[in-house]
Amino acid sequence: MVWNARANPTIDVAEKGSVILSCERYDPNTVTPRESTGAVPFLSAFSIDTPAPARSRPSICPPVCRVAKRERARREKREERREKRRMSGNGKVVCVTGASGYIASWLVKLLLQRGYVVRASVRDLADPKKTEHLRALEGANERLHLFKANLLEEGSFDSVVEGCEGVFHTASPFYENVTDPQMWYVLSKTLAEEAAWKFSEDNSIDMVTINPAAVIGPLLQPTLNTSVAAILNLINGSCSYPNTSLGWVNVKDVAMAHILAFEVSSASGRYCLVERIAHYADVVKILREQYPALKLPEKCADDKPFVPIYQVSKEKAKTLGIDYIPLETSIKETVESLREKGFVSF
Ligand SMILES: NC(=O)c1ccc[n+]([C@@H]2O[C@H](COP(=O)([O-])OP(=O)(O)OC[C@H]3O[C@@H](n4cnc5c(N)ncnc54)[C@H](OP(=O)(O)O)[C@@H]3O)[C@@H](O)[C@H]2O)c1
After folding, report:
1. Which spans are transmembrane here (predicted)?
2. Which of 90, 103, 169, 333 has the fewest beta carbons closer than 10 A?
3. For the whole model, what pTM was predicted?
């Protein structure tokens, strides 16, 4: 879920130096465009701080040169728009709770890429498995600040969220097999969301919730998380697959949806994120097509009829600008990531 201090930002963030592409400073009297030199790409050829040496140029531009200039101007505008989107955080301070987790690690990565300053909480700052992959992210040296906080300690998060414009709250235990009924995952999520809606209404907090289905895709963290384990269990030699139909969605889409829910001012309410509902039998079929030599489960875990699939509308997620990564790609990315991190070898 995302808390947003849009209405009343508490931080006066100093304007960060935005990245200016060298081509924006293009001056036809001082710089030779790449078309006429036919050599180095223009963007990387000159930096804004080091103007290129003056060259004598004809005073009237031939038609070819004018077309090239128009094309270059269009390219510059495109780049400028892309850069603006990419750096939309522009020094805004936000908080990510449970930052070392599967979804949160991607969230931190994308926030840093967009220029945000990220105050991230983990439970154990001394555990390299929880922090190293975050510290290694691009932009982390300059804009990632790690804090220790635990949901079970009253007031633990106060100093972490202090002064942030938005809070991405992902910290939560996520285990499927528990013995204590009070820890039942599905119930805990339902009760937690209800409590969060009540709290946000009572305290006039602008809140949006992101409700993803089973999240798969590449791992950034070195440890295995519960939802990716669902795919690992299919490729590590098991004989059967569960008689279950699940919604599936890529972790990168989930992380981006969190950010867009914060950035898009019209975002409100709940966003269910599902690229596709598929039975485990269909997931195994996709795996078999992608990895024909792999030993995959041949049969369902029970003889009952397959649990039917259902539909979840994509319309609301589309309004955020989410264009889902297809399930086939998500499965492939998950397997490749599990292989790369040594959870399977084949
Ligand atoms: N993955 C999915 O398929 C999926 C689907 C729907 C919703 N969600 C929700 O999305 C969120 C993130 O899920 P995930 O898959 O990224 O899970 P994850 O990898 O297990 O990450 C959960 C994070 O929560 C932190 N956490 C657990 N107990 C905590 C506590 N008492 N105090 C502070 N932090 C605590 C963990 O911190 P440590 O690193 O210190 O252990 C961990 O970083 C969860 O709320 C989950 O319920 C996940």
Report:
1. none
2. 90
3. 0.81
